[in-house]
Amino acid sequence: MLIGGTGTGKSHLAIAIARACIRGGARGRFYTVVDLVNRLESEARASRQGRLAEYLTRMDFIVLDELGYLPFAQTGGQLLFHLVSRLYERTSVIITTNLAFGDWPSVFGEPMIS
After folding, report:
1. Alpha-helix runs per DSSP H in 46-94
2. What element of type H or E holds 35?
3. Which of 73, 104, 108, 111 has the most CB within a 10 Å radius?
């Protein structure tokens, strides 16, 4: 988790960590959270839910950039939560955000899953 205000270098640091991992032979992917949620929602609409999650569990790491910068629907928050749950203990996840943990319910839509 890289938490801080706008312009503090969270994304830059996440990219530097990812680059070092790749140079060490790791496989990973970088997504802005809104783009990833849009892909997850698109996948669900096409009745192909779970394919992206399956692909990402084969990665060594993923970077989720800008959690909370732009809003998305509650269903998107639920899909994102499900993805992170699938990645748990399988794939390393780097998340950048400008939100304090107490503000996460505004992203996921439900206090219980944040």
Report:
1. 51-56, 74-87
2. helix 33-45
3. 108
Residue 43 neighbours by CB distance under 10 Å: 16
CA distance 22 to 80: 24
CA dist 13 → 2, 22, 86 (Å): 8, 14, 25
Closest CA to 87 of 62, 68, 113: 62
- Please give the model's pTM, rounded to 2 decimal places: 0.90
User: CA-to-CA distance for 85 and 45, rounded, in angstroms?
Assistant: 20
Contacts of residue 42, Cβ cutoff 8 Å, sequence gap at least 6: none
Q: What is the pLDDT of residues 69-106, one digit of tens each?
A: 887 888 999 999 999 999 999 999 999 999 988 887 77
- Collapsed DSSP state (helix, strand, coil) of residue 109: coil
74-87 and 33-45 helices cross at what angle (nearest 10)?
Answer: 100
